[in-house]
Amino acid sequence: MYSSWRLLNLSPNNQNSTSHYNAGTWGIVQGQLRPLLAPRVYTLPMVRSIGKTMVQGKNYGPQITVKRISTRGRKCKPIFVQIARQVVKLNASDLRLPSRAWKVKLVGEGADDAGGVFDDTITEMFVWPVTMVCLEMPCLLHGTRIFPLILCSFRFLFNPSACLDEHLMQFKFLGILMGVAIRTKKPLDLHLAPMVWKQLCCIPLILEDLEEVDLLYVQTLNSILHIEDSGITEENFHEMIPLDSFVGQSADGKMVPIIPGGNSIPLTFSNRKEYVERAIEYRLHEMDRQVAAVREGMSWIVPVPLLSLLTAKQLEQMVCGMPEISVEVLKKVVRYREVDEQHQLVQWFWHTLEEFSNEERVLFMRFVSGRSRLPANTADISQRFQIMKVDRPYDSLPTSQTCFFQLRLPPYSSQLIMAERLRYAINNCRSIDMDNYMLSRNVDNAEGSDTDY
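Above: the chain sequence. Below: its structure as tokens.
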């Protein structure tokens, strides 16, 4: 099947009827059969399509400009917005590169983008709560607690109220970022609810998906549907139900019509079943426009029809990699320079990293690579992690070169001091090239006004 997927109609819009001839394809489109597919069935077509559409002979795509330092008393726009407005104007074919889809010029900062700046700016876009508070809108992403998956763990839904052209453009850019993550195998730290991943790979949503993100709302609808069990009759229905028309709560908490003209359609005891059905149908499709915009952006970079071979979990792993930073994985891809594996400095380093919490290892990853996650497949790590011993004073702070995934360690008098210095570095040094040796090349030459940033 992995070599004949082109014969399958994977579009969810063209499967109006099923028969014994297309039942298998229908099972894939609807999602039931996708977990049964062998990995090569859904990976090889994607890998081959990406390879055939790869830009050849270039190390990076078009240059875009980012300003993170405020000047003239004006606060800069979020880098998500700055980059989005530039990238969506580019040609899609120019962004299909193996590593850097675009080159970043940081105005007024001391950095030259050899890969680290590109990685670092993308990582910065998804640092919570930046995603929640820095996007201009109502927020694109709406935070919701998921029960019963992980108590107190935040996941995000697309905001159904974000439907202006500016909002949809930003959703499209989010899709471009997802596509770039798949193509370059550099995952994003993006926490979306499972139902969003299902929609992105065109698996129809069911009531259980809504329960995961809004259990209280589903329970309320069930109470309305079976309200007679509580002794409520047609006579006292409106005394117990605070709704008087076909309106319901959206994912962003607003009360909205659940069908066209719902404000003028009265909710009664006799039509409560229809109300519940329409309310559920509305909630299962309220993010359709936003999902379509994200898929449009993804189609710039990767073959979107092939997403119909993936489960929601498989797509999430392609885009987001693994949330845990594994020390064992780093050991498999490490390369030593000016030092060997048996050196005490190296032994102290690995012991220190193993003692770190996952949150600290995430900070470490950003310190040495500009990224905060590793791919789910170790073979997809295209750049080897380098540990280099440098000739500097004892017990100095470590340094890194994010463009080369390289950690530079000076000599230390003990593991305790090494751990202390490393913790200080990863928590307090998140800017690239603060010595500003590249600053003269990155000055703002009046190429853009404050309104552009």
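The CA atoms of residues 327 and 364 lie 11 Å apart.
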